[in-house]
Structure formats: structure tokens, C-alpha cells
Design goal:
The protein is an alpha/beta fold. The chain has helices spanning 3-6, 27-32, 37-48, 93-97, 115-127, 141-157, and strands spanning 20-25, 52-57, 85-86, 100-101, 104-105, 107-112, 131-134.
Length: 171
């Protein structure tokens, strides 16, 4: 059974069991948000119950379609901000859904030009179980990309499978 086959449907997510929802997106998913009404409703459910309802990258497009029970946008009356941080893209989906390993936490490098925003991303990554490491400003992004490519190469081309992660070891 593949990971996709085991994934719970969005409508089945019990909001009382989670602290946050984070909607990520790329160029393709953002065009699907208009028809993903279960995701829209779940995003609003997190928001109206006072929980974190956040978006990453093109995930912000969901704000165009999600509506409160009143019909208004969930962002109405709020300040929507954006900042560029590089994080959450150096490992596979399996590690994003379950970052627990017996030998320690999965290494998650983070960089960005806004120090406060970067600190928030590091706090979020740490909260969900990663060894989040501040790698400095956004110019460091070019050093993070090879982690993703190495992970993909090892998982797919070298046959290591998708159930491994990089870790940071210190003396």
C-alpha cells in the first residue's frame, strides 16, 4: 500500500486533534484550490476555532476561495503578510508527515532575509519535530537545494527508498 493510499481524506481530519493546518502549494495545486471544497472548509474550521491556519508558497491561493460561514473571506480584517524563507524542501513527503526517527530529529535547514520571520519558521519546524537550523539570510538558499537533490537521488536512483532522512550531528 502506498503512502497516497493510506492518506486520510481532508474531510476526515479531526480539528480537535491538531494545533494547526498548513496549506502548501505549488503552481499546479494552486489551480485546484477552487474545487477542493473539503480543504477550504477544513482551513476555515481551523481558523474559526482560533487555531493556526497558515499557507506556504502558492498555498496562499486558498484564501481566494475559502469562505467563512458568513460568506466572507477568512482574511477579512486581518493583515496578510508574506516573506521569503527557504525551508521544508530538503526531504521527502514521508518525513514531512512523520519526522520521528529513533536516532534523532530530521535536519531542516532554514534561511530567509527577515530574521523575525525566519525565527517563526524555525519555531514551527521545531514544534513539529524537526531539528531546525538557522542557516542565515536568503543567499544561503543555494546551499539548501542540493540537500533536496541528494535526497531524491538516494531515494529513487540509488534505491534507498523514501524512509530515510538527513540529521545534524555535533560534538
Amino acid at each position: 500500500m502506498s503512502l497516497v493510499d493510506r492518506m486520510r481524506k481532508v474531510a476526515e481530519i479531526d480539528v480537535t486533534r491538531f494545533d494547526a493546518i498548513i496549506v502548501a502549494g505549488g503552481q499546479a495545486p494552486m489551480f485546484a484550490f477552487e474545487t477542493t471544497t473539503d480543504l477550504q472548509r477544513k482551513f476555515v474550521e481551523f481558523s474559526v476555532t482560533g487555531k493556526v491556519a497558515a499557507t506556504l508558497c502558492h498555498g496562499v491561493a486558498i484564501l481566494n476561495f475559502a469562505k467563512l460561514p458568513s460568506g466572507e473571506h477568512p482574511a477579512k480584517g486581518r493583515t496578510v503578510t508574506g516573506f521569503a524563507n527557504k525551508a521544508f524542501n530538503t526531504t521527502g513527503a514521508e518525513n514531512m508527515t512523520d519526522s520521528r526517527y529513533p536516532g534523532g530529529a530530521v535536519f531542516m535547514p532554514v534561511c530567509g532575509d527577515d530574521a523575525e520571520a525566519r525565527a517563526q519558521v524555525i519555531a514551527l519546524a521545531t514544534l513539529i519535530g524537526f531539528d531546525a537550523v538557522d542557516c542565515g539570510d536568503l543567499t544561503a538558499a543555494r546551499y539548501l537545494e542540493p540537500f533536496a537533490m541528494t535526497w531524491i537521488h538516494m531515494a529513487i536512483k540509488l534505491g534507498h527508498g523514501r524512509r530515510f532522512a538527513f540529521a545534524r550531528l555535533q560534538r
